[in-house]
What does this fold into?
Amino acid sequence: MQRTQEMTSVQPDWENFYPRPVSDKIPFFSRDGRVYDCLFAQQFSRDLLTLLFRTADALRDVTQKKDGADHVGSLLSDKRAMLYFVQPSTRTFMSFLNACHILGVRTSEIRDTSTSSEVKGETPEDTVRTFSSYVDMIIMRHPTPGFVEKTAWLMNRTGRPVPILSGGSGKDQHPTQALLDVYTLHRSFNGDIDDKHIVMVGDLKRGRTVRSLSYLMKNYKKIKLSFVSPAEFRMEADILEFLKRHNIPFQETEDFKGVMKTADAIYMTRIQDEHDKAGESKSVDYSPFYFRKENLRDIKDTCVIMHPLPRRHEIEVSVDDDPRAVFWRQERNGMWARAALMAYIFGVDGKIR
Ligand code: CP
It folds into this structure.
């Protein structure tokens, strides 16, 4: 994983680097043409996704037997990872943690800045740089937009860079959630994601999972997207412009019932009111954007119902028993997809497949 001299010598300061198009920045977060820091869904090509899905499938298979699990558990037993999750998380944290354990990576964690020297006035940047003195990889979730990217950018300018994997960054992106979401589509449709109508529902403005998932759609052919949201929470213009640039047809609507009939996948999301500035979510009627048990009659037999979770009321619990509800499987897919990604980043994935 050699970094070229060019990368270190020509990079501008952060204020000039950050606003650049993601496509221009990707090389700085790559090594030898491979993803090194995982920050943006745009880093995943179709070939890479296919490779990661094969690795994830192999991991599930091989680890069913103890000798296989022991083999996989030895692959990265010389590595240590820090999980720095200073924004609440259940499944991203747990799935990364257990993905590390599957591969033998030893882990440490900070989940609350009040337990780190940040309370003594150390900057978050210095805190994160400190981790790299002890570990070989940092997995992080942070509420500040751009902070995960800034960490990777900083680390790549030091003499001891380590891969940075985003577990969710502000309202921007949640690239490994998109990875597991597409892995779930891949498994649900027997590997054939092309030519599907995908309906994303809810708070699309502030949901980082739907943003990252939209970016990944560029890897598949003849995809149609429907964005169903309250007027206040429509998908942001940067994503719509990206879709136009990549000739991915989309519609925006509030008519959930109208579009669910032709959906191949319905991707539900909760209201993201943690981003409220003054309780503005309270004035929005979110109930038209719920999936209720009665809606099971309205969707195709082959349609899958997804959700990044956690949910509130946007999917009735009684829907869970329907075979088309795949969100609990989707959650578990996250562990395998994240383990496959880490194996790829450290170059041991060929010993799994
Ligand atoms: N989907 C997701 O990111 O869940 P957590 O917030 O629980 O990690």
